[in-house]
Amino acid sequence: MRAGNDPSKDSSASHGHERADGCSLVPLGRFSYRGKRLLDWAVLCLLAVPALLVIAVAAVAILCEDGRPVFFRQVRIGLRGKPFVLLKLRTMTVCAAPASEVPDAGCITRVGRVLRRLSVDELPQLLNIARGEMSLVGPRPHLPDRLRHYGSSELRRLTVLPGLTGMAQTVGRNSLDWDARTEHDLVYAVTQSLKLDLLILMRSCWVVLSGEGMYGHPRQKEPSAHPMLVEVARDLRNRDPDRATPEPRLPSSPRREEGGLRVAA
Asked: Which residues pair with 165 in a beta bridge?
C-alpha cells in the first residue's frame, strides 16, 4: 500500500487528532493566539525583580518555621499531554506527601496559610512560564493520574498551555467543583484572545486581594462566570465561527473514553 493511502493517517487527520511520539492521541487545536507569548514575556519582565524579592522573604519565613526544603516540585501534565515539573513554594509540613491537587488542611503550616491566601506560593511558576512549559493564563495543570478519567471533551484542555491563572480561578477559585472548573477551562480553550487574557489577569488580581473563593466553602448554587468574561467569550465566538463550539457540558462522573484516545503519562 502506498504511503499516501495509509488509512491510519487518513483516519487521524479526519478526526482532528495527531499522534505524539507514536504513543498518544491528542485533539488538534490552536494552542495560542498571536502575541500570547509576547504577553507572557512582557509581564515576566515587569514582575521578575518584585517576584524574586517576595520569594526571598517567603523562603526565609519557610526556613525559620519548618526548615528545608523551600520549594515543592510536582509532576503535572502540560501541552499535548507532555509532563513537566511544576514549581511552588512549600506550604505544607515536611512530613506531608500530598498525592492529590487538594491539600490536607491539617498539614498546612502557618506561613503556608499566608502564602496560599495571597497566592505567593505560585510565584515560582514564573520560571515554568519562562521555560515555555506554562503561560500566564490557561487551565491549571492536572496530575498525571487525572488523565485516566479524561473523556473526549476533557482532552481539549491539552491543546492549550496550562496557566498560572485561568478563567475558572476568576469565577470561583477553590469553591468550584472539578466539573465546573473543567467546563470553564474548555470555554477558554476555544475563546482565548489577548483581550480575554487581560481581563482574566485583572480579575485574578482582585480575586487574590479579596480572598474570593479561597476556602472552598460549599455552595448550593455554583458561581457563574463574571459578566465581562461571558461577554468577551460570546463576542469572540460570533466574530470567529471557525473557533466557535457549543458550550461544553461535562458528564456528572468521570469516565474513561472508549474511543481509544490515550495521552502520554
From this structure: 137
Task: Classify residue 2 by burial, with Cβ atoms within 10 Å: 0-12, 13-18, 19+.
Answer: exposed
Rounded Cα gap, residues 214 and 263, in angstroms:
31
Whether the CB-CB separation of 24 and 150 falls below 8 Å is answered with no
Cell of 65: 518555621
pLDDT value for 244: 47
The residue type of 257 is E
The Cα 13–Cα 21 span in angstroms is 16
Radius of gyration over alpha carbons of the chain, in Å? 19
DSSP label at residue 31: -
Greatest CA span in the chain, whole angstroms? 68
At residue 119, the pLDDT reads 92
Cα–Cα dist 94/72, whole Å: 10
Stretch (H or E) spanning 233: helix 227-239
CA 252 to chain centre: 21
> What's the pLDDT score for residue 13?
37
Domain range annotation of the chain: 22-243
> Mean pLDDT in runs of 10 for the chain (265 residues)?
43 38 45 88 96 97 93 94 95 70 77 93 97 96 88 88 93 78 90 94 90 53 51 60 46 39 41
SS3 148: helix
CB atoms within 10 A of CB 113: 12
In whole angstroms, what is the distance from residue 251 CA to residue 4 CA? Answer: 38
- pLDDT at position 100: 59
Quote the pTM value.
0.71
Q: State the amino acid at position 99 in one-letter form.
A: A
